[in-house]
Amino acid sequence: MAWEKQKAVLERRRRDLEARLVGIEMSLDAARPADWAESAVEREGDEVLEGLGAQGLRELGQIRAALHRMELGTYGDCVACGAPIAEKRIALVPEAPLCASCAGGRQPQAGPGEPRAT
Ligand SMILES: [Zn+2]
């Protein structure tokens, strides 16, 4: 399966997040107008400074990981159990690393490719 659509979405969000995070660092650092960013960033005001921080970093990490998995060819598979992530879930959360059952905290069923030491 090709992931061009997801890749485009993820790359756009990654750029957006990175630009905002850089903007936040600049603002916290120097509080001077970031005119370099005007063309590339939709500035959303000061709430971004408060809101993006931790959550934005976490999302950015997930997006980067998802793009990395695309390069490796494992994108779309749950990183915990290896099962394919449902298409509906991928469409909603393209950076999702886990299938619905792993993300829900339930133990994945051991597949044939997962021998368990007893
Ligand atoms: Zn899983």
TrEMBL record:
Keyword Zinc-finger in record: yes
Domain Zinc finger DksA/TraR C4-type stretches: 73-107
One annotated GO molecular function: zinc ion binding
Keyword match Metal-binding: yes
Keywords annotated in UniProt: Metal-binding, Zinc, Zinc-finger
DnaK suppressor protein-like N-terminal domain location: 7-70
PROSITE patterns attached to this UniProt entry: ZF_DKSA_2 (PS51128)
Native organism: Salipiger aestuarii
Pfam family, one: zf-dskA_traR
ZnF (dksA C4-type) intervals: 78-102
The protein's name: TraR/DksA family transcriptional regulator
Gene3D superfamilies (UniProt xref): DksA, coiled-coil domain
PANTHER family: GENERAL STRESS PROTEIN 16O, RNA POLYMERASE-BINDING TRANSCRIPTION FACTOR DKSA-RELATED
